[in-house]
Amino acid sequence: MQQSLSALEKKAIKLALCENWAEAIATNKELLDLDPTNLQAKIRLGRAYLLSKDFRNASKMFKAVLEQDPINQIAKKNYELAKSKSAKVAINSGAVIKEPGTSEEVKAEVISKSKIWERLAKGQTFSMRILKTKTLLIHSSKEIAQIGGPMALKIYLHTKEGAKVSAQYIGQSNETKNCVDILLKADRPIFKQEKQDVRPYMKKGSIEEHEIEVDSFDDE
Predict the structure, then answer these.
(1) Can you give the pLDDT at residue 93?
(2) Residue 98 lies in a domain
(3) How much is the pLDDT for 12?
(4) Mind listing the pLDDT tens digit for each residue in 83-94?
(5) Cβ-count burial of 49 within 10 angstroms (0-12 exposed, 13-18 middle, 19+ buried)?
(6) Which of 9, 22, 62, 134 is the most exposed place for a label (fewest CB within 10 A)?
(7) Which of 68, 93, 118 is the last residue before a domain boundary?
(8) 141 and 212 belong to one structural domain
(9) What is the pTM of this model?
(10) pLDDT of residue 3
């Protein structure tokens, strides 16, 4: 059963990324038959219904998610979209999370004084140089921003295991000076929030400085 669940999970994620909604609906329903409490399968199924314009079932599925997890922001957002029958708005605005765990909005510190940011359009994709303690964003062969902290380490570890991660420009940050908003996308759910990933009191220097210089690679 465990092997079947694992295989179905991978198939469901692939179908969602390929936007094959008919098969995605069937696969996630099959997953839920085997594991009725699978929250991610419910979210995927709700989204597949929503983008198939089956608003009734989409609303029903996201409501079920909220009954199981009342503070789930993905379900809340999509439940409102389903109730308002706004699949078109969802697609155009990106309000529907493409696949739980495969995308994450982060802030990147600007390290280039160039006016290049004024010329960048939303959705611009960057090349990336991935190190243990930071991920450098590259445009026109210049390093222009960096992502640090636990997210940088997460990107490093998962890409070493074969994950493909891309970075897209969202816009100037309205909250943090000298930062820009970046959308990270992965070909697998590497951004799932887990309790052990939350470390608000991580000590400075817990990741050795010399690690920046070893085992680094370019993803260009």
Answers:
(1) 42
(2) no
(3) 87
(4) 887 555 444 444
(5) buried
(6) 22
(7) 93
(8) yes
(9) 0.51
(10) 53
Expressed as residue numbers, the domain containing 55 is: 2-93
Residue 167: predicted pLDDT: 92
pLDDT of residue 214: 26
Using 70 as the pLDDT threshold, list the residues of the chain that sit under it: 1-3, 86-100, 193-220
Residue 104 CB coordination number (10 Å): 19
| Three-state secondary structure readout of the chain | CHHHHHHHHHHHHHHHHCCCHHHHHHHHHHHHHHCCCCHHHHHHHHHHHHHCCCHHHHHHHHHHHHHHCCCCHHHHHHHHHHHCCCHHHHHHHCCCCCCCCCEEEEEEEECCCCCHHHHCCCCCEEEEEECCCEEEEEECCEEEEEEEHHHHHHHHHHHHCCCCEEEEEEEECCCCCCEEEEEEEECCCCCCCCHHHCCCCCCCCCCCHHHHHCCCEEEC
CATH of the domain at 81: 1.25.40.10
Q: Are residues 206 and 178 in the same domain?
A: yes
Q: Comparing C-alpha atoms, which of 89, 105, 95, 93 is closest to residue 75?
A: 95
Do 212 and 131 form a contact (C-beta atoms < 8 A)?
yes
Comparing C-alpha atoms, which of 95, 93, 102 is closest to residue 80? 95
Q: Copy the structure tokens of residue 10.
A: 């991978």
Q: Are residues 89 and 107 in the same domain?
A: no
Task: Using alpha carbons, list the distances in angstroms from residue 163 to 17, 86, 106, 135, 219.
Answer: 14, 32, 18, 15, 11
